[in-house]
Amino acid sequence: MSQSICIISTQAPYRGQFAKEALDAALVSASYEIPTSLLLMGDGVYQVLEGQSPDQLGRKNIASMFQSLELYGIETVYIDGESLGERGIAPEQLLPLYTLLEGDAVASFLAQQDKVLSF
Description:
Blueprint: E1 5-9, H1 18-31, E2 36-40, H2 63-68, E3 77-80, H3 81-86, E4 98-101, H4 105-111, E5 115-118
Parallel strand pairs: 1-2, 1-5, 2-3, 3-4
């Protein structure tokens, strides 16, 4: 039986390569049929904010990668509700592909994972 992996992404989408590397790690893990989940915390919640225009920065829109996660078996992106609140972001402002984890739910969720990688 495969051990589950949770990838935690904590970086804004276009600040360095960490956000893309976290997504790449999740896709690679899932492609080997390892039960994989993705949790966005801290500035990582900006990755699924609707209406991003990274073209002005000369970057590709990271949102398209999120939409391909399901093809690899990652059906849900988990979002830390506290991180949203700290940044003044309402859940309605996000791409509709997430499950919101509030309060102690983040710790409970992470406790269920066999391995956790943070980017």
